[in-house]
Specification:
heterodimer, A: mainly beta, seven-stranded mixed beta sheet, four-stranded antiparallel beta sheet, about 55% strand, B: five-stranded antiparallel beta sheet
């Protein structure tokens, strides 16, 4: 696959479960991002990694834990989530986290917390 | 704090019509503005990126303009087709809280009727 891929595409989990979302980019980029898209709300930036270093945590609750082992892979570890965490989680990448580069998005993971 | 507003929230037009989607932002100190398309349940596809020094960008039937001083951008779609039906998102990239961020509007849901 090319571009930005995300797995799984759909996930249903209980409030006591632990799961992980995976993102992989095949574009040779150095910056990766997690966004949350809830119904009726704009996309919200959650985390930014630039050259594998976390440079942004947008006041995200600790039940969301990101991991970036290398520039091509990004994970979002989930535990003890709440029903209001149900949303579309989008991963994106760009050449670097600077103003001139476009962000390319993956297809998203639709998460439902029961 | 940057805020992005898109008007209208929804638009329905007959096939073949030319149309304009509007985006406004409160802080004119931006690096660039990006228009995206999102199909239901899917990720974002980048349509056009306008750097802060540019006035417009064109791609096929799409033309985006940027008036940074007034905090406005428009996306013009010529000769609309049913396949153009999607939600169109506007996002501006600027510096906030010491870091660079992409701030999104809520989108305009476009329906092109055959």
């Amino acid at each position: 696959e090319t571009g930005v891929t995300q797995t799984p595409r759909h996930l249903v989990m209980g409030m006591t479960n632990k799961k992980s979302l995976k993102c992989e980019q095949h574009l040779g980029h150095n910056a990766m991002y997690w966004y949350k898209q809830s119904a009726k709300k704009p996309l919200e930036l959650m985390f930014v990694y630039n050259f594998k270093e976390q440079t942004e945590n947008n006041s995200v609750p600790s039940r969301f834990s990101p991991e970036c082992p290398n520039s091509s892979h990004l994970f979002l570890h989930l535990h003890t989530l709440q029903p209001e965490d149900s949303a579309l989680y989008l991963c994106a990448s760009s050449r670097a986290n600077t103003g001139t580069y476009e962000q390319y998005f993956g297809p998203g993971t639709r998460l439902t917390v029961t | 704090k940057q805020e992005v507003t898109q008007i209208p929230a929804a638009l329905s037009v007959p096939e073949g019509e030319n149309l304009v989607l509007n985006c406004s932002f409160t802080d004119s100190a931006i690096y660039n503005l990006q228009w995206f398309r999102q199909d239901p349940g899917k990720g974002l596809t980048s349509l056009l990126l306008i750097q802060s020094s540019q006035r417009e960008q064109t791609s096929g039937r799409l033309n985006a303009s940027l008036d940074k001083s007034s905090g406005r951008s428009t996306l013009y779609i010529a000769a609309s087709q049913p396949g153009d039906s999607a939600t169109y998102l506007c996002a501006v990239r600027g510096r906030e809280g010491g870091s660079e961020k992409l701030v999104f509007g809520k989108g305009t849901k476009l329906t092109v009727n055959p």
